[in-house]
Structure of Puromycin-sensitive aminopeptidase:
Amino acid sequence: PKEIFLKDYKLPDYYFDAVDLKFLLGEDKTIVTSKISVYPRTEGKYCFIWHGNSCPLLLNGSDLKLLSIKVDGKKLKEEDYHLDIRHLTLLTPPSGSFVLEVETEIHPENNTSLEGLYKTSGNFCTQCEAEGFRKITFYQDRPDILASYTCRIEADKSLYPVLLSNGNLIEQGDLEDGRHYVVWEDPFKKPCYLFALVAGQLESRNDTFVTKSGRTVTLRIWTPSRDVPKTAHAMYALKAAMKWDEEVFGLEYDLDLFNIVAVPDFNMGAMENKSLNIFNSKLVLASPETASDGDYAAILGVIGHEYFHNWTGNRVTCRDWFQLSLKEGLTVFRDQEFSSDMGSRTVKRIADVSRLRNYQFPQDAGPMAHPVRPHSYIKVYEKGAEVVRMYKTLLGSSGFRKGMDLYFKRHDGQAVTCEDFFAAMRDANDVDFSNFLTWYSQAGTPHVSVTSFYNSDARTFSLKFRQEVPPTPGQLVKEPMFIPVSVGLLDSSGSDLPLATVYHEGLLHRIARNDQPVFSTVLRVTKKEEEFVFSDIPNKPIPSLLRGYSAPVRLDSDLTDSDLFFLLAHDSDEFNRWEAGQVLARKSMLSLVANFQQNKPLVLNPKFVDGIRSILCDDSLDKEFISKAITLPGEGEIMDLMDVADPDAVHAVRSFIRKQLALQLKEEFLSTVTSSRSSEPYIFNHQNMARRALKNTALVYLASLDDPELTSLAVHEYNTATNMTEQFAALAAIAQNPGQARDEVLADFYDKWSHDYLVINKWFALQAMSDIPGNVVNVQNLLAHPAFDMRNPNKVYSLIGGFCGSLVNFHAKDGSGYNFLGDVVLQLDKLNPQVASRIVSAFSRWRRYDEDRQRLAKAQLEKIVSANGLSENVYEIASKSLA
Ligand code: DPP
Ligand code: ZN
């Protein structure tokens, strides 16, 4: 298949107006009839004339059996259309508008790709983004075709009592032979990727939400009946999200019904289909006994995310898939803000930035590097959210809101581009954002270095910035980027200095507004090199740079270790307090890695231990913040900073530091564990989650020492836990070290939870991610475990995805990890290409490793690309990785 590029975008030659769908759902086949009113595009350059006086209409279709095709009620003759494995082409459509009717046969009962219409636990369900609708019927499967839909569904009434689609239910009734039907009508025009259908045995939790204009919306969350009790948290999240979007963005829900369906087999997290969101059940079902705090937080975020798409994605959608960030970057930003407002802003920011550093940055430095708006189609979420966040940092909350309002005013009901979003932000605020758009087109993580200078005579403090965007595949030369750098200056007591003016490129800018002192300002760094000079600075300050992580860049500065310890103790920007600790940790880890590689003894800087101790013992700090601040940077993050990634060295060093901290801070960790116990019932709120987080982090440190007394402490915590958060954390703490205690708790946990597949997935993941040497054999055995099933994406992500997360075992020197993954990818690809392509991307950074590993990984990639019948999805990732 040919790679598709952004520059190839062409307006469609035909538009669709109304789409009438009819589904006859059956056990051995399903018949889909579509009746579409089609009209040609009249303005702009029309396609070349091919046959007669009209141009052909190209419909996408995949795995479909064409039964009949009619135009304006007349059956088409064979010479009037052309059918191949990807398309149905109408060669001579009428020259004006017409009605197209197509009947197809599909087989959801055999569909293991989980795209299009498929079966999950006996129920029917759909997934159409990005290009799944073409597996349901022939259609112009592209997001700039917006149409209004009606959907009639007929099915056996006892097997499928609940029949759902988008919009409002307008008709229902019984048919012969125990069948029944419904008709749904969606008044909002939508692209086909937002179409959804669900049919099955489901029950719902029902509630209502009254919108700000007083409309009552019925809310239903559907699951198999036994799971309904586990939907309370999801319903809470949905109502909170609806209220938040009204309060923060003035956005109200636009229909009288909102449905969420939870299904066990789903390729991704969830899907924002208009008024019928379909969710991976992992992101809906929760109870204190079965779900951890992390699960509760993820559910809140993703329920919010999909709901927020109703405006950012559905009401205003993408023109083409290169614009994915238009809806995903913006909606991830919105869900991050929602979660921040519902919990702790700093802690949420820390979690998001860690994710960015451990996953996005490494990707951005490898062969899969892509700009926020890729030139060919690859997904981008997190970095896109950072770009949206920069608009807000530059424009302030009210300026950002003005931009959003204008965006909806201009584009409601349209399919648009990232430039349109940019233009709305710019025009609503009347600002010059010159080179900001490069964030959408340039891949790679910008590298910013800062040097500072204090002039005591002039009482000025200057910051000199230098930026560099590394070359990435296909983009060797880069333009400088527009980088907002939020800055504060600390005096010797640790307080923020008031900032009066800053001198930049021959102009003096006032920072202070009216008589209000200002303690933080956003510098706009837009050139390869430039300088900013603050005036009226009485003494040499310590700068706090890139506060709140105001831009997704790698920052280097001339701050000394003692400056960093000072910031760690005093910075008023909590994010930067954490960051100072991380910079110190990264430095120590890298220097110990060098020692390890040269066979030198490892010694941990006592100052580092003291810094961690003072944070751990600081009662004034938020407990969840402490838990994050005493957690070392991830192995992936450290490897990303090395010229040749060395998983063995990084792993050895990280384990060494963890054990040293555990040893030297044992008393502090012990008292943290005992003082953080609570006999109260589980509550999902920040205070309680923070307490549990700190306790669990301390316990994992202690148990890492493999000391019988500490192991029995962890076993005690495991046995007395009354919620999954603490039970699982204790299990993980014990499982760090091979031995009898580990084997016993793992077996006990399985016995306790074998009836609950979501909990068992945690059990799979924990074992898969284990750093125990030679763990590949254990993972191989787990593939054959009766609870494992390659057809269920969650199980694959837990066991196989989890294994790729254990850097020592996946990158084992003997190639056993690579070999295992190569085989699994080929097996998986036959069942589910989308899931297989996610898994194969674990290989994509093979060039970052030493020569032996490169050779071994490359051989696996070559084995994969040369396999017979490989899917396009896997081929794309594997061949790009090799290129
Ligand atoms: N899983 C995707 C999301 O909501 C589908 N758009 O982000
Ligand atoms: Zn999304």
Q: What stands out?
A: The mean pLDDT is 95. Residues 129, 268-272, 305-306, 328 surround diaminopropanoic acid (ligand 1) (CB under 6 Å). The first strand starts at residue 14 and ends at 24. The chain has 26 helices and 31 strands.
